[in-house]
Design brief:
With 379 residues, the protein is α/β, with parallel strands linked by helices. It contains ten helices and 19 strands. The strands form three sheets. The chain has a ten-stranded mixed beta sheet with strand order 10-12-11-13-14-19-18-17-15-16, with helices on both faces. Helix 8 (243-253) packs across helix 9.
Amino acid sequence: MGLLMLEDGSIYRGCGFGSKGTRVGEVVFTTSMVGYPESITDPSYKGQILVLTHPLIGNYGFTCMKSSLPGSGNVFLQMESEKPQIEGLVVFEETEPSHWSSEGSLHSWLEENQVPGLSRVDTRSIVRKLREHGTMRGIISVWSPEEGEPDVEELWKAMMESQGYDDLPLAYQVSPREPIEHGVDGPVISIIDCGIKHGILREILSRGFSVIRYPCYTKPSVIVDGTVGVVISNGPGNPSILTEVIENVRELIEYNIPILGICLGHQLLSLALGGDVYKLRYGHRGANKPVRDLETGLGYISTQNHGYVVSIESLRKTGLRPWFINIDDGTLEGVKHETKPIMGVQFHPEAGPGPRDLSWVFDVFKKTIYRTLPIYRRI
């Protein structure tokens, strides 16, 4: 048995699966039809209860297969981190797997990782409410029949007394505690790891680079030592409260080294240069989000997972110019600096899950590195 309660007082009762227990988080939804293992393990979902809009979830279970790239170490092939990162999962129907690569069911995987799940609820109703009123604080609780339903008033109290999502420095929770190295040869790219997806690591390694992932609070003097470029990764939470990271990025920019910011990294770059961010009503989360390249006029389908965006109007004081915009709502999806080898994208060019339309962004960054540092020129 289980339930989901939203901060407006609405309650959705259904069948519990995964782990028993109670978790609080910001309730969000994604429109991706496939790729639930990638979404569940995406560190950008830390602190959130995820609602999946596709009605059948669990058909292919999960797999812990590793990448075969040389020196990739513990880089996963079909997961974006080592474990589920979400606070809870809500689906219409949770199914048993039928796939050659499956190592277990969605239920067993969430149970092993202490993540509660809720099925047999009207997910369409939840999504319509979130679209109308915006993302909300929520609490998910799963229990066995013999335990009995928890007291609803106590659940409400626990939810409302919890710290709000926007005030939590979640990037520090998913950032590594020590540097992590990947790759066996090639120029080194440093990563400010705010909760990087393994798909980004695979894209960088496949282009002949080695990688060192640093804790997000690492000083710039350490990050630039021996590196040819820096990637500021995706991650969870409100970018504006990561003041230490923003200040480090501001100092890093003075080294005039090639920098690529992805999702949260794009926001941190913009903030460091004087831009502003604001929160969307219910965010962009899915694998079917259209963007337009303003340099060519071409449109692409992108994978996205963010609740905050950079204000286009605020770019006037930053030295940045728009690179991509969202075709649906006109929000900013990418930037380039007018004079420095700096770029950022709000979407996920590694596409995990999602279409491969925009993986060429990594090629643009690679060419920028070689143009900026001719000693490493190979193309």
